Amino acid sequence: MPLSPEQQAEIDAQRGAPQSTLRTTAPGMEKHLYTAYPVLDHGFVRVIDYMGDDAAICQAARVSYGKGTKSVSNDAGLIRYLMRHWHSTPFEMCEIKLHVKLPVFVARQWIRHRTANVNEYSARYSILDREFYIPAPDHLAAQSTTNNQGRGEALQGEEAQRVLRLLQEDSMRAYDHYEEMISQEGQQGLARELARMNLPANVYTQWYWKVDLHNLLHFLRLRADHHAQYEIRVYAEELCKIVADWVPAAYGAFEDYRMGGATLSAKGLDCIRRMLKGEEVTQETSGMSKGEWREFQELLG
User: Fold this and answer.
1) Which pLDDT band holds residue 73 (cuts at 50, 70, 90)?
2) Are residues 43 and 74 in the same domain?
C-alpha cells in the first residue's frame, strides 16, 4: 500500500488542524498540502510545506532589477519576461518540500539533480518494507534499436509473462533472504546496514526533498519530457499538476517557453532562415551531423 496507517493518521491530523498565519499563502497549493498522490504501484508524492507564490517572484524581481521593471504592467507579464530571458534568481524565492516514496532505481536518477536538500529513509536503522515496483504489462518493453538508453516495443504474450514472473520471484526471494539475514531473537544475524545490500533496485525507499522553484522547473523540464524514463516521468507529471496550482503564472510561462518551446543551434537557425527563403536544405548542406539533423527534423515535425 502507498501509505502506511501511521502516515495516513498523520496526514489526517495535519489536515484536520489548520493554523492561522501572517505569511503569504497560495490557495492553489493549500488544497494539496499533506495529500498523498499515488504514483506507480506503491509510490506517492505529497507536499509537506512551501514558501512563496507568483507574487513573491515579482516582488524579488522588482527589488533586484529596480526601476527597469516599472514598464511591466502586470505580474504575469513580468514573469513571462523573466522566463523568456532566463532570469533565474526571482524563481529561487519560492520553495517546496516534498515527501516522496519511490523505487530505488528511480531515486538514483532523481538524486542526480543535486540542487536540492534530501533526507532519505535509513535502512541502517529501520527495516525496509516488502514493497517492490513491478511494471504493468504494457510498460514491459524491449531495448530500443535506435536509442541505447531507451525502450522499444512492449513485450507480448509469453515473453511478457516470463519477465514478470522473474521480476516477482527475484524480488520476493531477495526479501526473504534479507529477512533471514537480519538479526532475530535467538540468533546473531547480520547488521541491517549490511543485509540491505541484498535487496534489488526496485525496492521502495522514501525521502524528503526540498527544492526552490527554479531548480524544480529544471527537473520538470527534463523528467516530464516524453523522452524521460516512464518511471520517473510519472512522478514529474504529478508534480506538474501541483506546481500549476501553486504558481499558475510561472507554470504557464514555463509551459510556453520551456516545455513547449525549443532551443536552436546557430546552424539550426540558419537552416530555418534558408528554408523561409525557399531554399531546399538537406542534411548534407545543413552543416549538421546525422543525429543533429534527425533531431532538427523531429523539432520541425
Assistant:
1) low
2) yes
- What would the pLDDT profile of 180-229 be if each residue is shown by its tens digit? 998 777 778 888 899 999 999 999 999 999 999 999 999 999 999 998 99
Tell me how far apart the alpha carbons of residues 254 and 94 are, in angstroms, rounded to a whole number.
15
Residues in the annotated binding site: 89, 109-114, 120-124, 196, 212-214, 218, 223
pLDDT of res. 142: 75
- Residues 54, 171, single domain; the answer is no
Residue 274 bears catalytic tag? no
Its pTM stands at 0.89
- Split into its structural domains, the chain has a count of 3
Position 11 confidence tier, pLDDT thresholds 50, 70, 90: confident
What pLDDT score was predicted for residue 71? 46
Grid cell of 68 as nine digits? 527597469
User: Containing domain of residue 293, as a range?
Assistant: 264-301
Which among 46, 80, 192, 223 is annotated as catalytic?
Answer: 223
